[in-house]
Amino acid sequence: AQRVTQPEKLLSVFKGAPVELKCNYSYSGSPELFWYVQYSRQRLQLLLRHISRESIKGFTADLNKGETSFHLKKPFAQEEDSAMYYCALNSGNTPLVFGKGTRLSVIA
Amino acid sequence: EPEVTQTPSHQVTQMGQEVILRCVPISNHLYFYWYRQILGQKVEFLVSFYNNEISEKSEIFDDQFSVERPDGSNFTLKIRSTKLEDSAMYFCASSEMAAENTGELFFGEGSRLTVL
């Protein structure tokens, strides 16, 4: 069965510090991985997907099939990055499976 | 920019009562979804809907749940006889293509259901 694990419920970093939000997945096939973000009082929205290999708002994520990971990284955190971040898996035959989410708090 | 809208934003109901949560998907989208999130837990898939029928549903989506697209714009989730454990945030989402193909879902702001 497909599963997404985000081991950290809360991650606090200082402004300007690097950020890494961890995501591990369990799926035997070739997955598509995504990061969704939910800012305070806003809706859940797509942040980035691994197939596009792009940087959005300074965030990047690399799919590591060997480690079955898709960690989200940003070299210098900003206060506006504070939000809930959800890693999600698309296995191709079921709708998106989400992790439990990690709350990122960037401290000024 | 078009958005998915959901009503009500918060509903409080007594156990055993019927609840209908409403969603207006983005107008040119063809695929519709309901997810729920119990407080402190992950966002869980309930059901997907395409071409006026359910295309997939999870184990959570039992006989107490139903979905309907009563007209050209609304997409509703009905819970026939609510239980305490139905208390959650319910998210509606829509997509232009099947999520299995794009992975991008557009979410509403959610309807918080509290069952007393």
Structural description of this entry:
The complex is a heterodimer of chains A (108) and B (116). Chain A has 108 residues and is mainly beta. Helices cover 0% and strands 44% of the residues of chain A. Chain A has strands at residues 3-5, 10-14, 19-21, 24-26, 32-38, 45-49, 60-61, 72-74, 83-90, 97-98, 102-107. In chain A, strands 2, 5, 6, 9, 10 and 11 form a 6-stranded mixed sheet that branches. In chain A, strands 3-8-7 form a 3-stranded antiparallel sheet, with no helix packed on it. In chain A, strands 1-4 form a two-stranded antiparallel ribbon. In chain A, strand 5 and strand 6 form a beta hairpin. Chain B contains 1 helix and 11 strands. The mean pLDDT of chain B is 92. Chain A binds chain B through residues 4, 32, 34, 42-46, 49, 86, 88, 90-101, and chain B through 3-4, 33, 35, 41-45, 48, 56, 91, 99-100, 103-110.
What are the key terms here?
heterodimer; A: 108 residues; mainly beta; six-stranded mixed sheet; three-stranded antiparallel sheet; 11 strands; B: 116 residues; seven-stranded mixed sheet; four-stranded antiparallel sheet; 1 helix; globular
